[in-house]
Predict the structure of Holliday junction branch migration complex subunit RuvA.
Amino acid sequence: MIGFLSGILKSIHGRQAIILVNGVGYSVALPTNANFMPGKEVELFIHTHVREDALTLFGFKDESSLDLFEKLISVSGVGPKSALAIISAGSAEVIKKAIEASNINFFTAISGIGKKGAQKIIIELKPKLSSGDADLSNLEGNSELNQALGSLGFTKTEILAILPDVDSVSDLSAQIKQALKLLRS
């Protein structure tokens, strides 16, 4: 198993990067929020994902992101591509905060994650990340806030950035007002 790579970033196309280590190029899937420059030295913590037909490397800047990725793929129904999309949506701390706050809107704003998937992630990971129980009242919410902000022209990235700071207990109109203030600041 490969657990760490240190080398030169030879090229990057979307999420796939080639890391040159002692003359061998490793293809590594990276989160989209990992800002690496071709030609520069990189150090990556690696998750080696083995299937019958493929061996795939997933790379992360720090151990906390790798640990979160591995927790995410331990949830039934969350594969490595979905977990990578979640990691791409924010830092490990932002994602942990969304799980601890039972913020279903954060996860449903990510392409490929529906309401049931978001609920499953929160229910299964909250006990692993904090000492409290999952706040199931927030899980009854839906992605109305995401849809409302999206219809106002905000991008998913902008919406995901402010969702953890929006009071999910408030009614929808109060959430929208609070979100708009955050988006304008």
In short: Confidence is low (pLDDT under 50) at residues 133-142. The CA atoms of residues 108 and 114 lie 5 Å apart. The chain has two domains: 1-61, 63-185.
